[in-house]
Amino acid sequence: MSVAFRRESDEEHKEPKFEIPLPSGPNLVTARGLAAIEAKVAALEAAIAAEPAEEPREVLQRERRYWNTRRTTAQLAPPPEEGVAGIGSRVRIRLAGKLRTIDIVGHDEADPAADRLAFSAPLAHALLGAEAGESVAFNGRADAIELVEVTAIPG
């Protein structure tokens, strides 16, 4: 085989590793969300210190850079007014005739499967600023969502 067809190393053929993309907009968090970010950074630092292999350590370091940025840019959301839906609220709604309870949280705390929606999610965004007893527009319908109850997320 000709020398022209040999590779010196596999390094030059690896895909580049880009940083983990950050959500756009402000990084508003609840107190619980900020604590979760702190715990994530601590867990990653421990994992990095315990990882002997270079490649897995680089993956962990990349993830730590993401979470350090999220920690640095985190802004504790002001508590919502009593009875008004905001970041840190648990909102009981009636949507399409069905009752549903949603927690409105920051991006990093969101878990849609557990009804923990980021404040920028369309459903949560529609609820922001509304009070119990109000109906709000959603998905092109004027009175699509009825707010049944608004409380603070239990700590």
From TrEMBL:
SUPFAM superfamilies: FKBP-like. Signal peptide: none annotated. It comes from the Bacteria. It holds the Pfam family GreA_GreB. GO terms for biological process: regulation of DNA-templated transcription elongation. InterPro entries: GreA/GreB_C_sf (IPR036953), Tscrpt_elong_fac_GreA/B_C (IPR001437). Keywords: Kinase, Transferase. Residues 1-23 are annotated as: Disordered. Residues 82-153 form the Transcription elongation factor GreA/GreB C-terminal domain. Coiled coil: none annotated. Residues 1-18 have a biased composition (Basic and acidic residues). This is Nucleoside diphosphate kinase. It comes from Sphingomonas hengshuiensis.
